[in-house]
Specification:
By secondary structure, the chain is of the alpha/beta class. Helices cover 28% and strands 23% of the residues. Strands 3-2-1-6-9-11 form a six-stranded mixed sheet, with helices on both faces.
């Protein structure tokens, strides 16, 4: 099958993700979690921006819990739909999360919990697909591309994905599309 557009690739991968059995998804997520937490960049990070997994994405619950156990500061994206913006917000507990735009769990908008991009030591990035050159295909709204462009170039960004989400090349990469530093898969 020849994929001609980002939208076709997005739909194909989302269907593959949806088709995974829950126990397979959790097993793969656990493998990714073990690889990520073993990396020096994770061990050395003091402040990590993660994401709340959504609709079959790589599960990040164990990652956030481990980071908190290790006394790392954990932040999650607050989505500002009107501005099409991600704002990193510190969290103390996963119980404070509530459904936000698109149904994605997010922290409350508490001004003293806001972080600037230069306070992040590591950013864990979701994606629908990644290619062998670390290019990323998101859900299409551009939130993460805009956010990643605000990060200092020295901030490591790690895409986490199931093996079925990695393709040889994502067609139609545009100047505003931001690759990640590294992709971890099962």
């Amino acid at each position: 099958m020849f994929i001609q557009s980002k939208q076709e690739l997005r739909q194909l991968i989302l269907d593959l993700i949806k088709g995974q059995k829950e126990e397979v998804r959790l097993f793969k997520s656990r493998v990714i979690f073990e690889k990520l937490t073993a990396l020096p960049v994770f061990k050395n990070a003091r402040t990590i921006l993660c994401y709340a997994s959504f609709r079959g994405e790589v599960d990040t619950l164990a990652l956030m819990q481990r980071a908190m156990e290790l006394k790392k500061r954990v932040a999650l994206p607050l989505i500002r739909k009107e501005e099409q913006q991600i704002v990193p917000m510190l969290i103390k507990s996963l119980t404070e999360l509530k459904p936000g735009p698109y149904g994605i769990q997010q922290p409350p908008d508490v001004p003293q919990n806001r972080l600037s991009a230069d306070e992040l030591d590591l950013v864990v990035v979701p994606g629908v697909a990644f290619d062998r050159r670390n290019n990323r295909l998101g859900r299409g709204a551009g939130y993460y591309d805009r956010f990643l462009s605000e990060l200092p170039v020295t901030t490591p960004t790690i895409g986490v994905a199931y093996d079925l989400q990695v393709v040889d090349a994502i067609m139609g990469i545009e100047p505003h599309d931001r690759p990640v530093t590294l992709v971890i898969t099962n």
